[in-house]
Amino acid sequence: MKKVLLCALLSVAISAAKAQDVIVFKNADELQVKVTAVSEDNLSYRRWDNPDGPEYTIDKSQVFYVKYQNGTKDVFYKVEPAPASALNTSSDFSGVKFQGYIYAGAIFNSEGGGPAVDLNFGARIGRCFYAGIETGFHTLISSVYFYDEKLTFTEAYVPIGVNLKGYLPVGKKIYPYLNCSLGGFVGVIDLDGLNGFYCQVGAGIDIRRFSFGIGYTGLVKGGTANLGYVKLGVRFGKY
User: Fold this and answer.
1) Residue 99 and residue 70 share a domain
2) Are residues 45 and 155 located together in one domain of the fold?
3) pTM reported for the whole predicted model
4) Run of H or E including 227
5) Are residues 61 and 174 in the same domain?
6) Where are the beta strands (DSSP E) in 21-62?
7) Tens digit of each residue's pLDDT (9 = 90 or more) over 82-98
8) CA 223 to CA 115: how far, in whole Å?
9) Helix extents (H) in the chain
10) Residue 233: Cβ-neighbour burial (10 angstroms; 0-12, 13-18, 19+)
11) 66 & 135 share domain
12) Residues 178-221: pLDDT tens digits?
């Protein structure tokens, strides 16, 4: 008889334990409760050891999961997958993104200067290298005096070449760079359609989508023209 009574008491105790809802928090704490309501953002309950006491409401963001008395679970915390950009940050030389630049500036020498426009279309390779095709329109306006008469000459050419940039990232959106462009040019104003060798070397800095550069431009066709340049531009495409 005693064994039967003991078994009955154990069965009642086990059933009572299973009749509890259990809240498991993100910090691994557990609380035995009776869940009374679950809304989109909140969870309400009464403590199991005080079923007639006050009703508590907590934010579901604090809860890992709730295990109900019937054995089912509601899981409120989900591990979000890492963004693709965070999975590939170990190397500065991985990934190719198409980009381009448009610059407005000026070229100049000791005799004069003029406006210049440059266009770049290419690809960013990792964080440290860019390769593209460069073209544009450069104008040089110079003046000379001949027998006290001022003569003004306007020359213009279209550069066509390969542009390379090497970056040194110093911040999340700040990229100093070295620039080199090599190719040829086609004269369009007062150069009689002549063409020759074109190069441009210099340095600059990208800050977010804005770019600034200074340096040297050289033209070679039966002689050498040495020019300086300064330009301000905008980068477009993926970053």
Assistant:
1) no
2) no
3) 0.57
4) strand 224-237
5) no
6) 21-25, 30-38, 42-47, 56-59
7) 555 544 444 444 578 89
8) 22
9) 2-18
10) buried
11) no
12) 999 999 998 888 766 557 899 999 999 999 899 999 999 998 88
